[in-house]
Amino acid sequence: DEDGRVACLRDECAHRACPLSLGTVENGHATCPYHGWQYDTDGKCTKMPQTRLRAQVRVSTLPVREHDGMIWVYPGSNEPPEHLPSFLPPSNFTVHAELVLEVPIEHGLMIENLLDLAHAPFTHTETFAKGWSVPDSVNFKVAAQSLAGHWEPYPISMKFEPPCMTISEIGLAKPGQLEAGKFSGECKQHLHQLHVCMPAGEGRTRILYRMCLDFAHWVKYIPGIQNVWSGMATQVLGEDLRLVEGQQDRMLRGADIWYNPVAYDKLGVRYRSWRRAVERNTRSRFIGGQEKLAPEGRD
Fold this sequence. Notes:
By secondary structure, the chain is α+β, with helices and mostly antiparallel strands. It contains four helices and 16 strands. InterPro entries: ARHD_Rieske_2Fe_2S, Cholesterol_7-desaturase, PaO, Rieske_2Fe-2S, Rieske_2Fe-2S_sf, VanA_C_cat.
């Protein structure tokens, strides 16, 4: 609005159902591109050019909160929580890149890809995993029912945060080189990553990516460095996409992508169990009037 406060309106004009997202925001009002009808942050129609204004006309809205550089939208029936989690990096890290990418992949498949490190030396051979050796054994150590843990032998800790965030911290010997056989906390230098995988439509995901370092803080001031980070992120994502798109195609044909899980699939399997539990209990809530969801991580 005019004071800079965010709002979320239904993307459908109350007049002829034209998507408001095709229009503009003028003086804090969403303006329909079809006939110029305008709506305030409460969804109330405030202007109807060329005709008499009807005071009762409005579009529906959703609760919105702005916190730590993110906008949270609540499509459910519950009230937004009083306290929101923070996904800012630790104070000794400097943010070097914040990117927005959209991919033709269902968001759950994208999250499972991000929670899987074992594919790196086979998939990312031209980017960050170039030259990585293939260990005899890769495992993900995690506490019972947890959605967080650390990789072995890679010095990487990783976790899933509901509803759609993955966070990883990578220990580095020097930029781009892992210190194999160590925990990330034992390393002197770290790369911290946040991926927010938001559903952007059927079979589409919008990724909000934040990359931080606890060393070489001066790098962010190099002219053109944002273009470098963007190019690297796009290249890494491209290596994943051709494979995950293939998974998605097979899944739509009825394939079970978790038919033979092994030790290093633990985090992805637990994410999928968590999601199925939430979906199952959400359906039960709407069918049977129940409000309680299953505990996270339980199938």
